[in-house]
């Protein structure tokens, strides 16, 4: 007779989880299209006010988030490219193994992959990432960013949410 304490509901794998990669492709297309428009229509470092707290400002970032390592002689281009490729591969493998109840992960992982690939394109083609979204208030400017960065940020928030709330949900379901 099976021991009742050892029986847990089986978490089924998600059916065709890689189909969610369409979301990564959408982030890449939207990112590259908006960067093309920004590069074509804006003058470098000349803000165009859209709202009192938001400008479109074309900037080139050879570094990473918040211009990390931007002042180095160029090796960081390849370093960040390798990180983007490795992260995209690793996250795609993770995506291929998610469970049916991990819907938020099915969205979060492709958002990060799409953002990484959008910025990777810039690094490989231009040697820098095109940024153009600039928020500011009371003389303080948040570092400029782009659609790829939005995808990465939303995806990371989804991962954090899933790791906290999803784990609680799974533990609660196991107790039931």
From TrEMBL:
Keywords: Aspartyl protease, Cell membrane, Hydrolase, Membrane, Protease, Transmembrane, Transmembrane helix. GO terms for molecular function: aspartic-type endopeptidase activity. Pfam families: Peptidase_A8. The keyword Hydrolase applies. Its main location: membrane. Pathway: Protein modification; lipoprotein biosynthesis (signal peptide cleavage). It catalyses: Release of signal peptides from bacterial membrane prolipoproteins. Hydrolyzes -Xaa-Yaa-Zaa-|-(S,diacylglyceryl)Cys-, in which Xaa is hydrophobic (preferably Leu), and Yaa (Ala or Ser) and Zaa (Gly or Ala) have small, neutral side chains. The keyword Methyltransferase does not apply. Belongs to the peptidase A8 family. This protein specifically catalyzes the removal of signal peptides from prolipoproteins. This is Lipoprotein signal peptidase. The lineage of its organism: Bacteria, Pseudomonadati, Pseudomonadota, Gammaproteobacteria, Oceanospirillales. The gene is lspA.
């Amino acid at each position: 007779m099976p021991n009742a304490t050892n029986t847990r509901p089986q978490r089924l794998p998600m059916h065709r989880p890689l189909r969610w990669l369409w979301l990564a492709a959408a982030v890449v297309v939207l990112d590259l299209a908006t960067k093309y428009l920004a590069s074509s229509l804006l003058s470098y470092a000349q803000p165009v006010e859209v709202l009192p707290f938001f400008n479109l400002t074309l900037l080139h970032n050879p570094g990473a988030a918040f211009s990390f390592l931007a002042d180095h002689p160029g090796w960081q281009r390849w370093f960040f490219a390798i990180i983007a490729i490795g992260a995209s591969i690793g996250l795609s493998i993770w995506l291929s193994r998610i469970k049916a109840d991990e819907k938020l992960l099915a969205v979060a992982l492709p958002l990060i992959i799409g953002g990484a690939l959008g910025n990777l394109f810039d690094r490989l083609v231009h040697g820098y990432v095109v940024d153009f979204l600039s928020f500011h208030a009371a003389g303080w400017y948040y570092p400029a960013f782009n659609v790829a960065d939005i995808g990465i940020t939303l995806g990371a928030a989804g991962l954090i949410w899933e790791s906290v709330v999803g784990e609680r949900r799974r533990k609660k379901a196991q107790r039931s």
